[in-house]
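README: folding subset

This subset contains proteins for which both the sequence and a predicted structure token string are available. Records are stored as plain text. Below is the entry for Signal recognition particle 9 kDa protein (86 residues), shown exactly as it appears on disk.
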Amino acid sequence: MPYYQTWEEFARAAEKLYLADPMKVRVVLKYRHCDGNLCMKVTDDAVCLQYKTDQAQDVKKIEKLHGKLMRLMVSKESHSGAMETD
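--- output ---
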């Protein structure tokens, strides 16, 4: 399970994975204080996407994507065009 090197590639792949099958996708955030690393993992058991950072400015990006995915998960409307509007 390699880590993505750029945030843009990871965010695009995570959104695509979620929209492909919303019922199977899981999102995990893990922070290791001793290393100062924040890791975000998006998986559907067949594909696993990971992004790790120790930069403070990336935390806002991760928070924004995580919030976007959570809003999609709880919304009752169709998931087809929801990601393009944000």
